[in-house]
Amino acid sequence: MSKKVKLDKQNNAKEEGKTKKSRKSGVFWLLGTSSLAVAILLACQFFIVDNANKNETFMKNTTINGIDVSGLTEKQAENLISYNLLNTRDEVSLKLKYNDQEWEFVGSDFEIANDIDKRINEAINYKRGQNFFERRKIAKQVEKEGLALNISYKSVLGGLDQKIDVILEDIEQNSSPAEVVFNPNSEEMFDVLPAKNQIIVDKQKLMEEIDKSLSNSKTAEINIPVTEIVTEIDKKEIISKLGLRSKFSTNYASSSNNRKTNVKKALGAFNGLIIRPGEEISFNTMTGPRTEENGYKKANIILNGAYVEGVGGGVCQASTTLYNAVILSGMDVVEVTHHSLPASYVPLSLDAMVSEGTSDMIFKNNFDFPIYIKTYGTDEEAIVEIYGNKFSEGESIRTRAELVKVLPHGGDKIVPDTNGEYSNYIIYKGEYYRVKYPREGYESKAYLQYLQDGQVISEKEIRHDYYWPQDGIIAEGTEEVTEGITLPDNKVNFIPPQKITDSTTSTVKSRLEKENPSAYNP
After folding, report:
1. What are the boundaries of each domain within the chain?
2. Which is more confidently placed, 341 or 421?
3. Could you tell me whether strands 219-223 and 93-98 are parallel, antiparallel, or unpaired per DSSP bridges?
4. Are 71 and 118 a contacting pair, CB within 8 Å?
5. What's the whole-model pTM score?
């Protein structure tokens, strides 16, 4: 055999081998691609692979809320389940409980809502595998055992979130400190109410529990989940910080019963008062109108520089007693006015005149802790006690009054009784009736002294007052004396202008007590 023939045979054999090998590879490729296609088709029989494709159906043996949706498209299942949930929505009953509080709702209490499309989408993706083999395994399991999915009635209860927010407002609370209870008339004046704990509702958990409960039933009864943050208090420590900051009393032993009644009534408006930090208190507002309807009696008041009878006489002694207790406690006084005639029950520049519509005594709690006021009266004294956080050890406050000088009066002035106001006493010229005595005036100052262990550390001027002198007034009749009428002897002594004299605080005090006894003080 020639070399050429031999080479041709060899080449033909090689070509034939390549052809057989190529045919064999093609068969294997066809078999492989056919198996993959069959597997994909098999998976599509059980799962919706693409949510956007509405023609794909639920896998066999699948139920939603007990309704068989096998073979239905997503849209068909959505319509069917929506109809069922909305048709039975009024049968829904929801009860929420917290301690002894309850909130009950039925389906008709809510707006109509439809969140079914979202829930359907969640349902069809339930237990979907991440790859072909997982999906195939799940599909076989579902076909054999069934797949029961539930969509909660919560999805058709519109406005549930807003109703839950209203409930949260009733339950939730911020923490607050312990509160001191003040009982001024009890032996143990102070007690402590526990602090309020912070209460927070776990809204997310509550919504999840509602969703879960209404997935399995039309009725749900749920205890609202809350977190309570406890605020610890030490009752003994709180009370131990409280103590008497000041006490002040004035004497009214010689006053009439009516006047004592007025003083006690006015002070009684402050008994048990708790003044919060920064709070201002008005004496006139607290005591109310000085009328008989409001329980006040007739007693002496000052009118135009003279003592006359009027309803509410003595109330200024109440305001003065309170005023002195206030400044000794360290509180700020916003408004205070002195009398036109000095009061005898306190030193100059330490009185507090009040009159409805014209003069008030206003003070303010300038501390960062509450102030507590106790007031009471005996047969002889009106008393005010002020409590709060104790002064530092050895610390105290006291007042000092200073007479700057006496302001002399101008003596008596004779005034004709042209209106016949005093016709019971005088008629004719030369007849006289004393309306009021002249009174000297005073320039005075008052100071607050701050002490440590009995020693004055500092002093502050708080008042500089002028009690202007008062001229005496003598009324004279206006009729001419006719023949045959003899006037009685004039028993009115005319007082000349006062000469300037050296006076001291003590001598002035003595004169005031003699001229203005507490029985006549306003």
Report:
1. 1-35, 62-228, 241-515
2. 421
3. parallel
4. no
5. 0.65
pLDDT at position 375 over 70 = yes
**In this structure, what token pair is assigned to residue 186?**
């009890």
HSE-CB at 242 with a 13 A cutoff on CA atoms is 23
> What is the Cα 36 distance to its own chain's centre?
74
Only one residue has tokens 């809502």, namely: 113
Enter the tokens of residue 464. 């500089």
**Rounded Cα–Cα distance for residues 409 and 406 (Å):** 9
Q: What is the pLDDT of residues 211-253, one digit of tens each?
A: 999 988 999 999 999 999 988 888 888 999 999 999 999 999 9
Which of 487, 441, 505, 488 shows the shortest CA–CA distance to 467?
441
Question: 250 near 345, Cβ under 8 Å?
Answer: yes
Average model confidence (pLDDT) for the chain?
84
Residue found by looking up tokens 């068969």 in the block = 27
Sheet of 147-149, strands arranged across: 67-68, 62-64, 147-149
What is the C-alpha to C-alpha distance for residues 243 and 245, in angstroms, rounded to an integer?
A: 6
3-state secondary structure of 299: strand
Q: What is the pLDDT of residues 277-321, one digit of tens each?
A: 999 999 999 999 999 999 999 876 655 555 666 788 889 999 999
258 Cβ partners below 8 Å, 6+ apart? 297, 298, 299, 313, 314
Q: In which residue are the tokens 């080449």 written?
A: 11
* Under 8 Å between Cβ of 81 and 116: yes
Tell me what the mean pLDDT of segment 94-107 comes to: 95
Q: Is the pLDDT of residue 35 over 60?
A: no
